[in-house]
Write a structure and sequence with these properties.
mainly alpha, disordered C terminus
Length: about 475
């Protein structure tokens, strides 16, 4: 029991609040409650830096330095090994009955390495290790139930879960049922209703660089625009998505509206027949179309067929008239003749790449030749998304393009890159082809072809008459 120092007691009574503390402590009866109060005060004092005196004046015991780990004894299975390689010694020790964990601990490697070597020895060498059991004959696989249809949850009534921004399903798709009925033909097909469709739509959103919320918002926007009267192809162009995605969504959520319309039509016909009402003549919608001249029998390439094909193409790509379609194709030709690439043409005209390539194929069939891109244009790295609204930033100096090309082809400096291109030009003027130049100079075949394209765009011509004659 610690003794009371009169000097410390006098200092304690001089402290502010000492009287209240003594009075409160005296009011606590002896027992566990008083011992708990003393313990709490000691804990607070230790946190403040107080160190209690050790009993009988004994100091703190000295901490012994940790002794070195005892030296590992050699394994009795590692004596008189015949194999010279480390892998062979591992297999030999395993054949003698040593456990894989003991071998790994002795050699300082992983147990997985020992097991892989043992499996390889079993398959390729037919070795049997101690503890291996004879393989049992495999049982015939039980056939699943034929035409088994799992229980599916019915489609819930609206409002659906994705209409609530605070729904917990946004963060945890496993809250949905595993199987659900198909919601084709209704707005329930706009979003996922089970775990499988949730995973599918989440992966589709990730492929397009969006979250699931943004992906469903885009689908809502497609339905809103089409209901407003916009053409699906124009919606696809404005949203910069494939037109197939728009038509696929419309087929999934619009089939129900079509079914309702057909059912209403049949119901009206049934009522008319029952009451003997005269059959209402069907009114075909008036479609404004260009009057076509009569086509010659058996001639599919006549003027009428060509005009009909162009009208169908204009309707396919979403143009309002045939003149607008022809003007767009002419604009594609003019921009391509200026040296602009197909992707840049599509961005300037706000047309899909498929239309631009189809127009280029049409003009190519008429004998129009496109200018070949220069070497600097082939290797020019431009971030189109970053500079989409700033065309002036798309331009790149020739020096930076050459520096990028030198780094791409692995040259240590720009001078070495220029010297290599001059070497390719010299060998080509001597009559050597690309493959022979690559073999003689040690350069890659791809670099030789790119260098030849650069010199060809610069106006260099090659004389191959002597080689053809040979």
């Amino acid at each position: 029991m610690p003794r009371i120092d009169p000097l410390q007691m006098a200092q304690f009574f001089a402290l502010p609040g000492a009287a209240e503390l003594v009075e409160a402590f005296s009011a606590i009866p002896p027992g566990e409650l008083r011992d708990s109060a003393v313990s709490h005060v000691q804990v607070l004092a230790r946190h403040s830096g107080w160190v209690p005196d050790t009993p009988f004046g004994v100091g703190q015991p000295e901490r012994l330095a940790p002794s070195a780990a005892p030296k590992r004894l050699a394994s009795p299975f590692s004596e008189d090994l015949k194999s010279a390689s480390a892998e062979g010694q591992m297999i030999e020790r395993a054949l003698r009955g040593e456990a894989s964990a003991s071998i790994a601990a002795d050699l300082g490697c992983g147990v997985g390495l020992i097991e892989r070597l043992k499996n390889k020895a079993r398959k390729e060498g037919g070795l049997v290790f101690p503890g291996d059991t004879a393989s049992k004959p495999g049982k015939a696989k039980a056939k699943g139930r034929k035409n088994y249809v799992p229980d599916k949850m019915p489609v819930p009534p609206p409002p659906y879960w994705w209409e609530d921004p605070a729904s917990p399903i946004w963060e945890n798709g496993k809250l949905l049922p595993h199987y659900s009925d198909k919601a084709d033909g209704s707005m329930a097909g706009l979003g996922p209703l089970d775990v499988r469709s949730y995973t599918t739509m989440s992966n589709a959103a990730a492929r397009n660089g969006m979250t699931l919320r943004q992906y469903l918002a885009q689908r809502f926007e497609i339905i809103r625009r089409v209901d407003r009267g916009e053409k699906p192809t124009q919606v696809a162009i404005d949203l910069r998505i494939n037109a197939f995605a728009v038509y696929s969504l419309l087929t999934k959520v619009g089939r129900g509206r079509m079914a309702e319309g057909v059912a209403a039509h049949y119901a009206a016909e049934a009522v008319a027949v029952k009451h003997g009402a005269p059959e209402v003549a069907k009114v075909e919608p008036v479609v404004e179309a260009t009057v076509l001249p009569p086509a010659k029998p058996g001639n599919r390439n006549g003027p009428a067929s060509a005009l009909a094909a162009r009208i169908a193409a204009a309707k396919k790509w979403g143009f309002e008239s045939l003149d607008a379609y022809e003007a767009a194709r002419v604009q594609v030709r003019d921009l391509r003749l200026k040296g602009i690439g197909p992707k840049e043409i599509g961005e300037q005209m706000k047309q899909p790449n498929e239309f631009v390539r189809a127009a280029m194929s049409y003009w190519r069939g008429l004998g129009v030749e496109w200018p070949e891109p220069t070497f600097s244009e082939q290797v020019q790295p431009v971030d189109r998304k970053r500079h989409a609204n700033r065309p002036e930033h798309l331009a790149m100096t020739a020096l930076s393009a050459k520096m990028f090309a030198a780094k791409k082809w692995g040259f240590p400096s720009l001078d070495a890159f220029e010297a290599a291109r001059l070497t390719v030009r010299k060998h080509r003027l001597d009559g050597a082809r690309a493959a022979r130049i690559a073999e003689q100079t040690g350069l890659t075949y791809g670099f030789v072809k790119a260098a030849l394209a650069y010199w060809r765009s610069a106006g260099e011509t090659w004389d191959d008459s002597a080689e053809r004659a040979a």
